[in-house]
Amino acid sequence: MCTVRHMGSIHPRHLDQRRNLDPCDYEADADSYRLTEGLQFHIPAGGDEISMRIAEVQHRLVCRWNRSNRRRIAAQLGRQFGIKKQTISLTAKGLRWAGEPVLAALIHATEP
Predict the structure, then answer these.
(1) Pick from 16, 83, 86: nearest CA to 51
(2) DSSP 47-97
(3) Among 17, 60, 80, 99, which is 20 to 30 Å from 23 by CA?
(4) CB-based burial label for 48 (10 Å; 0-12, 13-18, 19+)
């Protein structure tokens, strides 16, 4: 049986938060996160390789969403998937780990 550890006031749909680092912390130029596809990722102090790989995947997905001219904006995705617009925006900036609902929304938004 799996036990779920609740962390503060994190909504249960976003329990897959990673440690104390954000996805943009794994990129040397955090200001370019979500904007430039060929970024070099690294493992910062306190980070780990799995989180770095997840940050890379999240970054590529957000870049793909940006390239799609955002046919579906954050507010629309939020309404459709039951996610706050702010959650999608923070994820797109690399200031929050995506979580399954946001990943599903971004994948859906970038499908042809």
Answers:
(1) 16
(2) --HHHHHHHHHHHHHHHHHHHTTTSS-HHHHHHHHT--HHHHHHHHTTSS-
(3) 80
(4) middle
Rounded to whole angstroms, how far apart are CA atoms 101 and 8? 19
Residue type, 97: W
Q: Do the beta carbons of residue 51 and residue 19 sit within 8 Å? A: yes
Which residues are CB-neighbours of 94 under 8 A, at least 6 positions away?
22, 23, 24, 27, 30, 33, 34, 55, 58, 59, 62
pLDDT in tens, 18-60: 568 999 999 887 677 777 777 889 999 989 999 999 999 999 9
